[in-house]
Amino acid sequence: VKPFRHNCPDWDFMQIGLSDIEAVGCSCYRGIPDADELYELRSKELDELNKRKEETC
Ligand SMILES: [Zn+2]
Hints:
Strand content: 5-15%
Number of strands: 2
Order of helices and strands: EEH
Largest sheet: 2 strands, antiparallel
Shape: globular
Distance between the termini: 35 Å
Structural class: alpha+beta
Bound molecules: zinc ion
Strand order of the largest sheet: 1-2
């Protein structure tokens, strides 16, 4: 189940949920505590991915 699944205008109306990494580029549900929690998790994930990329370079 993908929470907050929607066709995101920030992603050309691609269907994403806040459990997808794409949620970092989405601001549709900002201000909703449950959603903000997921946004934060995704941005941490992205930080981790970027760190790993730097390490392999
Ligand atoms: Zn969105």
